[in-house]
Amino acid sequence: MKTAKISNPSIVLQLSGLTKKIGGKAIVDGLSFDIAKGEVVGLLGPNGAGKTTTMRMIVGLIGMTDGDVHICGQSIRTNFEQAIRHVGGIIENPEFYPYMTGYDNLKQYQRMTEGVTDARIEEVTKLVGMQDALDKRVKAYSLGMRQRLGIAQALLHEPKLLILDEPTNGLDPAGIKEMREYLKRIAEAEGIAILVSSHLLSEIELMCSRVIVIQEGKYVTARSLGETESPKQKIISISLQVGDAAHAQAVIEGMEGIEVVSVTASRMTIQIQHEKIPGLVAGLATQGVEIYRIEEVRETLEDEFMKLTGGNRIA
Amino acid sequence: MRNFSGLLVNEWLKLSKKKSFFVAYAILVVVFGILAFAFYKLSPDGLDSTLDFATGTIMLQAAGQLVPVLAVLAAAGSVTQEYRYGTIKFLLIRAQSRHKILASKYIISIVYALSLVVTAAVLAVVAGYIVYGGGSGDSTWTDFFSNMASLAVYSIVFVTMTFMVGILTKSNGAAIGIGIFSMMIGSLLVMLLSRYSITKYLLFANTDLSVYRSDAIPVEGMTLAFSIVILLVYVALFLSVSFAVFKKRDIA
């Protein structure tokens, strides 16, 4: 068992051995990870991996069977009110009292937390661009507007941690882009840590600095997004479209440090160091190989995700 | 403490911002209006004064029965509507314990029920005054206020029970159904079982305290103090179950 003591003050969220069992079956099984201030972390996993259960345990909506969650050093289990005051959340769709106006709904949450001023309500609604719709009843809101009001309520009490479960669920592409930009702006402007789950991997890729992959309730891996190796030495996959692949292959095999992965009539995939690409192009050109396209073959988060979780198996 | 008053304000607004909020009060106005009109036209025997009219109409067996029904309708929704709207998720991730949140909901359900009792009582007196303009009858203010108190106690007991059913079932319909059904069937059940002395421990045998003024005691040997103790035990039981379940429940 890991001890739950926190030594690093920049750790905002700490999960230690978090476990949820329902009827003897472990939905979440000994999950441990930390999130530091200002980090945007994605929680990934196939359907039924326990993402939502984990997030609900973090905010105390679901009790935990074992382990603990600390938020800014306070246990959600034993010190709920002290811990939860640092958290803002949207768990699945944001829901409001439909017969009240957006403003009345925000006032509800203002009254529940000490120290939220009227000026803060104004500030938050401006941040999400809702100042003009605030005196309409929520039942007249579009889903996008409700999402924005959801973010506004989550930010109201100046949390240090945002928990967002599928925040882009049900939004159209424009709404998703908008949402992503809000979150990025918020993370920068307010310096808060964000834990976000989504099944849209491309979304996570664009939004997060780190992803945590879980499967069947267990921690699988964590990975930083963005460049980690020095790009010069990095071996990358290149796809070439050429006039005569056989000829090109003959030329390439005469060069050092290039590995041919696959060849078809006019297309070939090779592995090459970043810094050797200009030499390759010059070599091919002088040998009279016609080059139509040079493209990098990128392994997307999706490919990696599939590899890690063995596809989207339904457990 | 400031925080808790905020919770109470929130719960009151959740009730009062609904369009249906005034309907309950409007129903009472209409019913007492109709009663006043009917009494004015028919002028039945034995009712000779404002107080006679007011004391008689707010009884559970008369227009008073509406009050607990309306109170139960609101109490059933207090927790279940949060589930229906999905707002329970936002409600429970604030720096407030679940006990405090539930306490605020229960208190406002009771306050609302009492507001209906007071409204009915005021309407009864006003309507009675319009019809009889004072007059002299058998009823006293003591009769009137004890009927009003019985109505309040009856309403509080059924509001508490409905509140618990709402938490257990998370269903507005089930809570309303069970709450109103037990009001209807309760007194019938007690009547059928009145020859067994065990019946006196039934909740429904004790809910109407006005029986102790009219000597229509449901089971032999019951006293006002006995009934009050039984009611307190039931209310304590309903509340313990409510708070224990609400505290532990996973919001999935």
Oligomer: heterodimer
Bin the strand percentage of chain B.
Answer: under 5%
The dominant shape of chain A is elongated
How much is the average pLDDT of chain B? 91
Total E-strand runs of chain A: 14
Derived from helix and strand composition plus strand pairing, the structural class of chain A reads alpha/beta
Percent in helix of chain B? over 70%
Q: Name the helix and strand elements of chain B from N-terminus to C-terminus, one letter apiece.
A: HHHHHHHHHH
Strand order of the largest sheet of chain A: 6-7-8-3-9-10
Q: Which structural category fits the helices and strands of chain B?
A: mainly alpha
Termini of chain A, distance in Å? Answer: 27 Å
Largest sheet of chain B: none
Which chains share the greatest interface?
Answer: A-B, 32 and 27 residues
Low-confidence stretches of chain B: none
The helix count of chain A comes to: 10
Principal-axis shape of chain B equals globular
Largest sheet of chain A: 6 strands, mixed
Q: Pick out the low-confidence regions of chain A.
A: none
SS field, number of helical segments of chain B: 10
Quick recap:
By secondary structure, chain A is of the alpha/beta class. Chain A has helices at 51-58, 80-84, 102-112, 118-127, 143-155, 173-190, 201-207, 245-253, 277-286, 301-309; strands spanning 11-22, 25-36, 40-44, 66-71, 74-75, 87-91, 161-165, 193-197, 210-215, 218-224, 235-242, 259-263, 267-273, 291-297.
Written overview of the protein:
The complex is a heterodimer of chains A (315) and B (252). Chain A has 315 residues and is of the alpha/beta class. Chain A is built from 10 helices and 14 strands. The radius of gyration of chain A is 24 Å and the shape is elongated. The two termini of chain A are 27 Å apart. Chain B is an all-alpha fold and 252 residues long. Chain B has one domain (2-248). Chain B is 73% helix and 0% strand. Chain B has helices at residues 2-16, 21-42, 50-57, 66-85, 88-91, 98-132, 141-169, 172-192, 211-214, 224-248. The A-B interface holds A 56, 59-63, 80-82, 84-85, 87, 89, 91-100, 104, 108-109, 111-114, 153, 157 and B 2-3, 6-7, 9-10, 13-14, 17-19, 85-87, 89-97, 248, 250-252.
